[in-house]
Amino acid sequence: MKILTGSRIREADRYTIAREPIDSIALMERASESIAQWVAGHVRPECPLAFFVGKGNNGGDGLAVARMLHRAGFSCAVYLAFGRDELSEECRFNLERLPRGLSVRPMAEASLPEGTVIVDALLGTGVRGELTEPLLGAVRRINSSGCRVVSIDLPSGMFSEFGNAGRTTVRATTTLTLEFPKLALLLPEGGEAAGEVVVLPIGLSEEYMDRAESLYFYTDAAAAARLPLSRPKFAHKGNCGHALLVCGSEDMAGAAVLATGAALRSGCGLVTVHLPRSERVSVHANSPSAIVSGDPEPVFSRLPRDMGRYDAVGVGPGVGQDPRSFEALEALLRAGLPAVIDADALNMLSARTELQRLVARGSILTPHLGELRRLAGDWASEDEKIEKTRDLASRLGCCVVVKGAHTMVCSSDGRCFFNSSGNPGMAKGGSGDVLTGFLAGLLARGYEPLAAAILGVYLHGRAGDRAADYYGQEAMNAGDLIDFLSEAQQEIFGRDDG
Ligand SMILES: NC(=O)C1=CN([C@@H]2O[C@H](COP(=O)(O)OP(=O)(O)OC[C@H]3O[C@@H](n4cnc5c(N)ncnc54)[C@H](OP(=O)(O)O)[C@@H]3O)[C@@H](O)[C@H]2O)[C@@H](O)CC1
Ligand SMILES: [K+]
Q: Could you say which EC number(s) this protein's record lists (predicted)?
């Protein structure tokens, strides 16, 4: 799904109005129906609804939703931040359409009895500059209310893209964003205040959305479902790819166990794990399907024999940064295999930057924020972070996967794909090892690097969501992700048994 930014958001609106044809009131009605339907399905009918309404079209949406939910039997009260003469045409039109029995009062008279759900329709994508009164006071009132808050399109006050650090905005429980998620909802500066993000389709022109230029995309289930390779009828273990994993050391053999378990769920034909010989039983015991190549040293010190057998390599989790491992990493990179590079392998690339030139084009780097800082340099804002990631991806000709909420996959041509799946329960040691093993398996299986990164990150997140449903976010751990990778794939690939 494409994420539009800046003036293109309004342009999509105008294009739809001109070409469909549909007038802007009818488009607002369509958006509002979608919002009202979501609220009716997720809020108990006995909860009072308080609509905080601004003067632009975001407010117009709020008024139309209030009318629809009042008719559906909800107890609705509308609180206006501005006088009637200040409202946009669409907003005023919807104010006039409110049925008689629906209470409409100035914002100063807002009353929020226990159990109230606030619908935040003060400001959407039209916000400019600093918040001033009366909106600033309204935002503060919402945030201090302790009520559940459903924001329409954006938490009011938030810019659609960048510049939200330290900004006063509504803190939403849920944000119902229209047609596509606004970029700010996916970035840490604004994302925390957005709560759960739900994307509601409102039928903007498909033709416009296809043509519109954007560097930003959102990987939802539909986008992920376009990526899987089919498995040939005459497949055998020799033509489905052989993944090599260079993971684990004496103190961190578990990283190898996790990466191996995940690689074995990727569909590739063979998985070989290279780790200190002393630790090989840990892999044999947990993953009897894997082949083990034993390093005579307690750290990564040399290459496995016959590197020509492998189609892709995953390197880094748990390898440590012993001086011998730098030499071994250099030899591994010189072998020229597409690689998934993570953890200590990334740190070695930061410590000896000349190694970066040896990274094969079409590799995938999977840094968390600390590793990204060491590789690309620090940043002062989200847009600078994205620019630095783009520079790194383009300089190395690789995909860079920046891990975190809404993990971002940045391609070497500068496109950024934000992931929709996953949850905070995955923020635990070992999750990254699972991702590395899974991505290396997908590369070996024959996926293009960008497809492997986008699909692998999405499925890893879905496995996390399944694990959270089963164990809860606190109790789930990285090993559980491996088990649920299979269910995650069935959601996207379909079940083979029909
Ligand atoms: N495209 C779509 O998909 C569709 C979009 N739709 C909806 O429209 C929304 C966008 O509507 P919008 O453009 O009217 O802007 P919106 O956010 O309501 O507010 C603008 C008003 O706020 C004011 N204002 C601004 N900054 C301020 C500040 N700092 N402090 C104080 N005031 C400030 C500004 O006043 P001005 O500065 O002009 O005096 C102006 O009057 C969008 O988010 C979605 O909900 C749907 O209806 C249908 C399809
Ligand atoms: K809003």
A: 4.2.1.136, 5.1.99.6
